[in-house]
């Protein structure tokens, strides 16, 4: 089994806050991500696919095709958007990195299966110091 990864990047705005809470409580829990007037992150998304290399091409899946799928299903919807307001598949969520990784998995899994790959991991990096990994469990 071989694991291959495609990296894509996007920039987006969001806010993490629970409306019923005080501003102070939100800042205590969510830090700078609770800023009432939004803020942005430069996200890096790593999509890892597993499979057996196809004998003729030597590819698990075509990485350029994988990149196109990630752009179609995720990047074009979220890049330079407000994740809490603009994006159909994230605006009902607390837009934590964890929840975004799950939402991206749900959009990508079947599309990747169509090109013969098995989605293994969504890794989403929000800042230099923080990232999450989701394996579909
Ligand atoms: Ni944030």
Comma- or semicolon-separated keywords:
single chain, 137 residues, alpha+beta, Tetrahydropterin Synthase, Chain A, 5 strands, 29% strand, binds nickel (II) ion
Question: Any chance you could write out the topology, listing elements then pairs?
Answer:
Elements: E1 2-14, H1 23-30, E2 39-51, H2 63-78, E3 81-82, H3 97-114, E4 118-125, E5 131-134
Parallel strand pairs: 1-3
Antiparallel strand pairs: 1-2, 2-4, 4-5
Helix pairs in contact: 2-3
Bound molecules: nickel (II) ion
Q: Which stretches of 5+ consecutive residues score pLDDT under 50?
A: none
How far apart are the termini? 20 Å
On the 0-100 scale, what is the average pLDDT? Answer: 97
Task: Enumerate the strands of the largest sheet in spatial order, edge to edge or round the barrel.
Answer: 3-1-2-4-5
Approximate helicity band: 25-40%
At CATH level 3, the topology is Tetrahydropterin Synthase, Chain A
Note the overall shape.
elongated
Strand content: 25-35%
CATH classification class: Alpha Beta
Describe the oligomeric state of these chains in a short phrase.
Answer: single chain
Could you describe the 3D structure shown?
- This protein has 3 helices and 5 strands, in the order βαβαβαββ.
- The protein is of the alpha+beta class.
- It has one domain: Tetrahydropterin Synthase, Chain A.
- Strands 3-1-2-4-5 form a 5-stranded mixed β-sheet.
- A hairpin with a 5-residue loop joins strand 4 and strand 5.
- The protein is elongated.
- The mean pLDDT is 97.
- Nickel (II) ion binds next to strand 2.
